[in-house]
UniProtKB/TrEMBL annotation:
Functions as an E3 ubiquitin ligase. It comes from Acer yangbiense. This is U-box domain-containing protein. It is an enzyme of class 2 (transferase). Keywords: Transferase, Ubl conjugation pathway. Pathway: Protein modification; protein ubiquitination. Its EC number is 2.3.2.27. One of its GO terms (biological process) is protein ubiquitination. InterPro entries: ARM-like (IPR011989), ARM-type_fold (IPR016024), ARM_PUB (IPR058678), PUB22/23/24-like (IPR045185), Ubox_domain (IPR003613).
């Protein structure tokens, strides 16, 4: 009878308003997270993905659902899942032993939960999960690269996370490649922001800056500054400013014919912040 009534009203031109979905509850989220944790212990990819699919469905239904999901510790559970589904191989040189499809879905979900809670950040800063994030950044796959570096960028507010990131041998090479061979604007910007956090680090900052200089970062940043949008210019100038704190950075900048023309061009043409950073390069004279 209900179906017949609906059909009659549609045919008569009466506007059909769908019934609002019932908001998800904390209890429902808790039950799904418990199911996910059980799947993680068994390394049950199918079971885990089925639960994650339900979490994503709820999250995309409403802002209220997303808040409920995040407030009940979902991000920390997903961070633990990164560890659980990562390779047992300490050097993480390949994805052969990694549940790659699961990890990609986890990162995709974490991206709509940003900014991440502190517990999730601490877990992702541990060696197994951090190694995996860098490995996924290395993978020449747009989706996994973008999701991985977005998560890394968001966690760079934490000094302990930065220190752990600096300790990963290949991270410098990966970040510089994203600038040298840009994939998309968002990845390039995220890479610069991560580099800025690394070269601004209070510990071992001299060594970090030297590594980036040796990889040609000064020249890459100068070329980027020639024709970039405002916000990207600000981040690039910030990186350039920090790099010039090192002797190697100053030498590389002074030896590059683009340095002065580019900096002069940027004075008063980008933003107040960018202008302040340009004027801070006065130590190039020394």
């Amino acid at each position: 009878m209900i179906q017949e009534w609906c059909q009659e009203n549609r045919n008569s031109g009466v506007e059909w308003i769908p019934t609002p979905k019932v908001p998800v509850t904390g209890t429902e989220v808790y039950e799904i997270l418990s199911s996910m944790e059980a799947s993680m212990k068994r390394l049950d990819q199918c079971g885990f993905l089925e639960s994650l699919k339900k979490i994503n469905k709820w999250g995309f239904e409403s802002e209220r659902n997303r808040k409920c999901i995040v407030d009940n510790g979902t991000a920390a559970t997903l961070a633990n899942a990164v560890v659980a589904f990562s390779s047992d191989d300490d050097d993480h040189q390949s994805l052969e032993n990694v549940h790659y499809n699961v990890l990609e879905e986890i990162l995709s979900s974490l991206n709509w939960m940003l900014p991440l809670e502190n517990d999730a950040g601490k877990i992702l800063g541990l060696k197994p999960s951090l190694n995996m994030l860098v490995l996924l950044m290395k993978r020449r796959d747009f989706s996994s690269t973008k999701n991985a570096i977005s998560v890394v960028k968001e966690l760079c507010y934490d000094q302990e996370f930065i220190e752990a990131l600096v300790g990963i041998e290949e991270v410098h090479e990966v970040l510089v490649r994203f600038i040298k061979e840009p994939i998309c604007h968002e990845i390039t910007k995220a890479s610069l922001m991560v580099i800025f956090s690394m070269v601004s680090s209070s510990n071992h900052h001299g060594r970090i800056k030297t590594q980036f200089v040796e990889m040609g970062l000064v020249s890459l940043v100068l070329n980027m500054l020639i024709d970039s949008e405002k916000h990207l210019n600000e981040i690039a100038l910030g990186v350039f400013d920090r790099i010039l704190d090192s002797k190697e950075g100053r030498e590389a900048a002074c030896g590059n014919d683009l340095t002065m023309p580019v900096l002069v061009k940027k004075i008063l043409r980008v933003s107040e912040l960018a202008t302040d950073r340009v004027f801070s390069f006065k130590h190039l004279e020394t």
